[in-house]
Design brief:
single chain; 72% helix; globular
Length: 505
Amino acid sequence: MEFSAPVLNYTLLSPMLIVLGGAIIGVLVEAFMSKALRPITQLSVTLGSLVLALVQVWKIRNEQSTTAAMGSVVMDGPAVLMQASILIISLISVLLIADTEHFTALAAALPGSEEERHALQTGNQVTEVYPLTLFAVAGMMLFPISSDLITLFVALEVLSLPLYLMAGLSRRRRLASQESALKYFLLGAFSSAFFLFGAAFLYGYSASITFTGIRDAVVGGGGNDVFLLIGIAFLSVGLLFKVGAVPFHAWSPDVYQGAPTPVTAFMAAATKVAAFGAMLRIYYTAFANAQWSWTPMLTIIAIITMVFGSLVAIAQRDVKRMLAYSSIAHAGFLLTGVIALNKAGLEASLFYLFAYGVTTVGAFAIVTLVRDSAGEVTDLNRWKGLGKRSPWVATAFAGFLLSFAGIPLTSGFIGKFSIFSAAYESGARSVVIAGVLSSAIAAFFYIRVIVLMFFTDPVEDGTSVEIPSSLTSITVIFSLIITIALGVFPAPVLNFISNLATFIR
C-alpha cells in the first residue's frame, strides 16, 4: 500500500494554526520564563494570537472549500461567522481572565496547604490559564467546521479538556472549584462516550464517517433506519450536553457557580457558539433529509429546556446560578433555530449566538466587581441597593439583564424575534408559543434583580463594588456597546450574516 502525503490548505486553516501556535508558545513561556515576566508575556501572546487569527478569518471570509483538510473540515460562510464570533468573545473573555486575582497561585497544591501559602506569599503566580484558554479556543474553532465524525470528536475533546482544568483554578473556595471541575469532567466523559456510541451507529448505517456520506445514505434510504435513529439520538446527547439542554444540564449550575467567574464567562459564551455551530452544521447538512426522525425529539427537548430553565431560575438566590439557569433557557431558545431548518433559522441562530455570547461575558464581568473581604459576593440578597452604591455598574448589569429578557432596543430582542420568526415560518408553532411564554417568565426574575438593585436600600454588610481594572472596564464597555448597538442598528450585521449564511455540502 502506497502512502500519500496529506494535502492541506494552510491559508484556510491558518486561524486555527495561529491559535494553536500561540498556545504552544504559552506552554514554553510558562516552563522557561521568570515569574516576574510571565503574566504580561502570556497576556501579550494570547491577545496577539487571537487578534492575528481574527484578522486572518476576515481575509478568508469569501473563500469556500470542502477540501481544506482533505474533506475533514468545511470552510464556508457560516464557518467564518462562527470562528469570528468565537474569537471576538474569546478576546473580551481573556481581558477578564487577565485579572489573576481570580486564579489560584499554584493549582497543583492542596487547598490550604503550606505549599499553597508559600506560593501566595512569594507571589509565584502560575499562569497556565492562558495556554489552556488558547487550546480551548482552537478546539472551539474546529468544532463547527468539522465535516466528519472523527474530526468532530477530536475537536470536542480539544475544547473540553482545557475547560475541565480551568474550572478548578479558583483562588478562593478552592474545594468548591475542584468539585465543579470533577463534576464537569465526569459528566463530560459520559457525554463523550454517548457521542462515540452514536458515531459508531451512524457509521454502521451509512458505511461513512463524513457528513456527505451520511446524507447520501439518508437520501438513498438503503440503510437500517434503526441504526440511523440510535445514531442521531446518541450523537445528539453529546452535543446537547455541551449546550446545557435539559435533561443534560445538571452540570451547568454547579460548574458555573464553582468555576472562577472569568472562566464561567468564557465557557458560557464561547462554548455555546461552538456547540450550536456544530449542531447547525450536522442537522442542516447530514440529517436534513431525516428531519422526520429528529424534529419531534428536539422539539420536546427545546420546550422542556425553555420552561425548566425559566422556572427554576426564579428560585435562585445566587447570581451565578441564576445566570446558569438563564443559560439553560437560552439553549432552548437557540434550539428553535435548529428545528426551523431554513436559511432564516440559520441566520437568526448565528446572530443570536454572537449577541448572547457578548452579553454573557459582560454580565459575568459585572459579577467579578461585587465583593467583600472574602472575595466575590454572589448572594443576590447582598446586591440590594447596588444602584446606589455604584450607579454605573448597576446600570450596565441592568442593560445585560434586559437583553437576556429580550426587551426592545437590545440585541436580545432582535435575536429572539429573528429566531422565533424563523421557527414560525417553518411551522414549529408549538416551540414558538413555548418560547414566548418562557421569555415572559424569564423577564420576571431579570426585572426582579433590577428592582433589587435600584429600588431597595443598601445594607451595610461589607459588600462593596470594586473599581474595575482597565481590562475589565474594556470588557464591560465593549459588551454593553455591542448589546445596545445590535438592538438599535441590527441591519448591517444581519445583512452581513445573510450574505454569508449558506452551508456548502
